Amino acid sequence: MNNKLHNINQIISEIATKLADSDQHLISSLQQEIDNLLLHGPEDNRGPSTPHPDKASGCYKFGDDPDHYCPHCFDKLQQKIATQRLNRQLRVCPQCRSSLRPLQ
Ligand SMILES: [Zn+2]
Known about the structure:
Blueprint lengths: L1 H17 L5 H17 L10 E4 L4 E4 L8 H7 L6 E2 L5 E2 L6 E2 L4
Antiparallel strand pairs: 1-2, 3-4, 4-5
């Protein structure tokens, strides 16, 4: 990540040297957007790729995604499998057939 960031910054400063003074503001807005992304992207542990155990269902949730995902499939196979609701207490994973209950 830091390595990529370094590359991006290098490219940006190269572009900056080729741009006219009147266009330099484009570079600073680009830089600002990237800073925003970095602040709110990977640093944010509620991001879409980080699982959050959901106590109410026993499943994993991701970011703002309303679906409930199987924690077994995600931990073992890095697969996001949406679980199906059987009843108020119970969900089942269509892939590994685990039943998922609320955590105590
Ligand atoms: Zn599963």
